[in-house]
Amino acid sequence: MLKLAAVGGVAGIVPLEQIAAAADPVPPAESTPFTAVMPIPPVLAPARDSRCDRYDITMRTARVEIIPGLLSTVNTYNGLFPGPTIVAQRGRAVRIRQTNELSVLTGVHLHGGKVPAAHDGHPTDTIAPGASRVYDYPNNQSAAPLWYHDHAHMIEGDNVYSGLSGAYLVTDQQEQSLPLPHGRYDVPLQIRDARVLSDGTLYYTRAQDRPHVLVNGKERPRFEVAARRYRLRIFNTSVDRPFDLRFADGSEFVLIGTDGGLLSEPVRVQSLLLGAGERADVVVDFARYAVGGSVVLVNAAALATENADVMRFDVVCTASDSSKVPGKLAAVPPLPKATVERNFVLAQDWTRGALINGNVYDPNRVDVQTRLGTTEIWTITNADPAGPPPNFHLNHSFHTHLADFRVLDRNGKPPAPTELGCKDVVRIPPGDTVRIAMTWSGYTGRFVFHCHQLPHSEWGQMATIEVV
Predict the structure, then answer these.
(1) What beta strand segments (E) does 383-461 contain?
(2) Strand order in the sheet with 86-89
(3) Staple 360 to which of 80, 92, 351, 353, CB 3.0 to 4.6 Å?
(4) Are 326 and 335 in contact (CB under 8 A)?
(5) What's the whole-model pTM score?
(6) Residue 350 pLDDT
């Protein structure tokens, strides 16, 4: 309610970064890592007809055990935290009826989806308490790890933090033809931070006061694996925290995809730096560990006051393994020549809001207009100066709806491995300038681009592009 002092605009909003955890009615819960078993969100079964796969999802509160021994009240899709996974086939349409049984406005955005404007989850296309809305997703895109989450204007950060997110995996024949790990050996990891109080309350406050790391809704869990290859789909579903993920023993793993799908060829890496909203698709070979051994995934970007542990993999058995990572994965199409160049400056003004080119978001204003089929190069600069930790609020995660992009360079240098291929989110730390290129194709209408540090988009760091 502090943040919603002015419903019609950003005036009077208290930035999340200024809401300190000192206001907690009780302290954060203490927890012992690796006591909870990591669950895998169930894949939702559709009702199928000749035209599409149909789903009914209900947003409602639920009581869940985030930290062992404590019950927390969260907002969910179908009572699950995080929501159920949807698996879609390229070219096969999906229709989802979303019903809001919560007491707040909601809206659902298929992050990474190429969908008509009316079904994109525009921030003002909200679902009132007690109402329903139907979303149609054509899935005319390559295999990729998408996710669905709330996008209601000015409260998207609150709603996502409270639990309104879930995985949406698009697959296609090309992906299915590859000898990658599949079935029970293809595992989503939805990673985020949280502050759970000692009475179980999931408390929304600034990132530096959120000490708990959740994987698939459990705090620093353990996961039993066989001594063989696994495909891990890693989602950073935190509202505003970046993660630098590595194995504690420094071992390598193979990056095979990013936000928009598979890379052209695999890349061996030892770390994954993911901003809020980014995804990575990796293959890890646990055969290098003896049965009975274990390895911990850590966050090298944890504050000095935080526990860096994310989760533990326990190798409990052997298993046959016919999977492999081929030298060629997918054809990443080259971008056509750009005919338009634009510049965007991201900055924060503690009195006006979070800004793009000096403006806060106005849903009635068109900031950029482009023509269908146009290829553009955007130069994006974070104008805020660097600061000492904790400095989560100084980072930006730039996200475009409708169009994937390619990262051309960062500060004049080639992109890192985790920024290769097709992307829809790119990190912009203080002082950095990143150039991206995209083609606006598929649909006309009004779409948004914004910072995926959701407290920033709530505070006005969002703009409208109209495709004509």
Answers:
(1) 396-400, 405-410, 425-428, 433-439, 445-451
(2) 86-89, 165-171, 144-150, 108-111
(3) 353
(4) no
(5) 0.96
(6) 87
